[in-house]
Design a protein that fits this description.
mainly alpha, 13 helices
């Protein structure tokens, strides 16, 4: 078999770009290491902050009071005064007041959510924070990135959309992007446990939930704390923000490399050129064998003799005069042999 030089077309280039993206994500870079370290740090910071949170909350709502109310709730179904929550509104009681956006003196206070998709800005009510970046969900995407990629989801969708919006200078393009909306919906469905395995939101919340006495929103039950305790809660917010920021920085470098590769591969016309690029000591990209096999399938040619035979063996060729004479002589010889 003789292999013909494989030429590139749009489909082949697209497959190679997708595979190169996987290669870029697999590389050990400073940005990727910073992201992984930020995730590890966030987990330990969350545990430490939650331990302080537990002390503060149970100081405000003693467990014996919680137990009393729970027994009353079981006895009287009209009572609903205690429940578990992972969002808390803390107010500092041992520090000077601070100025708000209107330059008025107010207590130092903030909303802290330990939920997987809780706000990263410490604002009240909105778990999405700045909106366009969907930042509460960005923490969830970063923490479960590998698991989401394994089932075909795109946990980098918000980062990619932000980059595209910056490139096109369209402030509202993210909100009207059907692909982004579909990615977010699919990601949310998975995080809810839609593909089995249980809800990631619920399991995360269970790990960081405490008993709260009172009904209504967080602001109606402001929990007093010290300035030092408040600082520990702010460390939790900062750790979650760092996970999102480092995830974004890493994926930005990946996207930049892939974008440049798209430009480079446009100038390539043959697969051998891509192979030469992939084998460079600075790249070391092992192209997915399935792509090579798929692209070579129709590009194999056989030798000239085999090609002639494969064509001319179709149907029956009429014998020449010499072939007829030879066939007759052979027939007569066989007949005489039988007769004798």
């Amino acid at each position: 078999m003789e292999q013909k030089e494989i030429r590139l077309n749009a489909d082949k280039r697209k497959s190679l770009v997708i595979d190169f993206r996987k290669h870029c994500e697999s590389l050990d870079t400073e940005e990727k290491e910073a992201f992984k370290q930020a995730r590890d740090d966030a987990k330990s910071t969350l545990e430490s902050s939650f331990a302080t949170c537990k002390e503060v909350v149970e100081r405000r709502f003693p467990l014996e009071d919680v137990a009393t109310l729970q027994s009353l709730q079981k006895k009287h179904n009209t009572i609903n005064a205690v429940g578990r929550d992972s969002c808390f509104f803390f107010k500092v009681t041992d520090a000077p007041k601070v100025l708000d956006q209107y330059n008025d003196e107010v207590d130092k206070s903030r909303h802290f959510s330990f939920e997987l998709d809780g706000s990263l800005n410490g604002d009240y009510g909105s778990r999405y924070g700045s909106g366009s970046s969907n930042n509460g969900k960005n923490f969830a995407y970063a923490m479960y990135r590998e698991d989401m990629k394994a089932v075909g989801l795109n946990p980098d969708c918000n980062i990619e959309a932000d980059l595209q919006a910056e490139k096109s200078d369209q402030r509202y393009s993210r909100n009207s992007n059907p692909y982004l909306s579909q990615c977010r919906n699919d990601n949310h469905h998975w995080l809810q446990g839609g593909q089995g395995g249980g809800s990631k939101y619920d399991s995360w919340k269970d790990d960081y939930a405490l008993h709260i006495i009172g009904t209504g929103g967080c602001r109606s039950r402001a929990i007093p704390c010290s300035d030092l305790e408040f600082a520990k809660f702010e460390m939790m917010i900062g750790a979650k923000q760092e996970v999102v920021n480092t995830h974004s920085q890493w994926i930005k470098t990946v996207v930049a490399r892939v974008t440049r590769f798209k430009e480079v591969i446009k100038s390539m016309t043959k697969f051998s050129q891509v192979e030469k690029f992939a084998s460079h000591d600075k790249i070391q990209w092992k192209i997915d064998p399935s792509i090579l096999a798929d692209k070579m399938g129709m590009d194999l040619v056989i030798s000239i003799d085999d090609a002639v035979d494969s064509i001319m063996n179709i149907g029956r060729k009429a014998p020449s005069r010499d072939e007829k004479i030879k066939a007759r002589i052979l027939y007569n010889a066989q007949t005489s042999s039988i007769a004798s």
